[in-house]
Amino acid sequence: MKLPRILLAGLKGGSGKTILSIGLARHYGNAGFQVKPFKKGPDYIDAVWIGRAAGRTATNLDPFFMSEDLLKSLFTEKAQGADLALIEGNRGLFDGKDVSGSCSSSHLARKLNTPVVLVIDCTKMSRTVAALVQGCCFFEPGLDLAGVIFNQTAGERHRRILRDCVETYTDVAVLGAVPKIKKGIIPERHMGLISDQEFAAEEAIQDCEQIVAENVDCRKVLELARKAPAFEKPQVSVWPEHRPLTQPVSIGIVKDACLWFYYPENLEALERAGARLVDISLLSSEDWPELDGIYFGGGFPETQAEVLSANVRIRERVREAAVWGMPIYAECGGLMYLCAELGVEGVNYPMVGVFPLRVELNRKPQGHGYTLTRVVRPNPFHSLGAEFTGHEFHYSCCSPPDQQDKGYCLQMVRGTGMGQGWDGLLYRNTFACYTHLHALSVPDWALNFVRAAQTCQQARDDGYPECPPIIA
Predict the structure, then answer these.
(1) What fold, for 249-461?
(2) What's the fold here for domain 5-226?
(3) pTM value?
(4) Are 13 and 40 in contact (CB under 8 A)?
(5) From the candidates 103, 122, 332, 398, which is the catalytic residue?
(6) Can 456 be counted among the known catalytic residues?
């Protein structure tokens, strides 16, 4: 099957590939093409931006979470019918989790047999750029380095020298040269780009598109994407088969400027398992509909701490739900919200208080990277003894229980979690951890969540004063 596709990579993080990915997605969309965006790696923020630019939800692709066959199946399912699959890489092209570069952008490009366009920050660089391009061409067998885009160029003379050097010493096509941009188009903060909900997103996307239209040979980029080899459709099914529920359960999904880190596949997995998803907010005082479960994703509760704390009605609603025994699953930012207190720049804000812990925001990351966890305590969402992959990226830390028997559910085989080799707290049927999971790498999670919500629904319908403890 033909799947026109291209992967934008950089020599390092901050090379400019996100701005160019956003600009290309909007440019091709404006030209009438159906663009399907993808983001390599465990990334929420860039994925939302490129998805907004393309007008279609971005899908994350990560070899750490998925087998090669599952990765290919997800890619073909989501790219089906698109005129262009646009994949944004992460970090440097060859940067992975070990010395062999496993799970890198180049790893993904080779597995998907996808041409790569390399974005290079050319600040204070001229002829050296040819050596870098040549080195990337031969560093890994099987990588198709099809083109290069120069970024942060100083002027026409600089751009001419860069082009002449690459064309003289390599066979790689020069696809564009972007001048220095004095002002950041999209501001950044401690976890990357600022949220599209907190900034003039459309104006920024239009600026990105203008930069691409004026400085990149978009026709040539599309030609390279269309030259990608035919893609053999894998036979592995993306989604596990579930017996449909006779009565759907309602699971609230917090979606606002506070919490919005969700993999689309996590939400789709819940729906396929029988959930009806209901968008709810922690920032609004509007009442929620009747729910059978709640999913708190990650996000930026620290930027909304004052509003979260002031919204006493919703905090009490969440606490009452947890005390009653409603199944609640919280990741990272959700964990922070469920603790007793959140400290931000010397100010302490009361939170829900399901867990009697204080969370403190720090200036440096407290946990960052891929994780591997082992389930060591029975809970509603993960089977005892199971291991699953995930990732973490948090600047906050909390004062965790000092012993396993006080609440830990996850032993960290790889990663930081809450520290001291542990993560995951449990109160009745509420589970909270720093680890983010991807539903396709933990196929039982969505079904266990929905089954727990079904138990809650039945307990409420039967008039139980509280929902009993639920074990996966």
Answers:
(1) Rossmann fold (3.40.50)
(2) Rossmann fold (3.40.50)
(3) 0.92
(4) no
(5) 332
(6) no
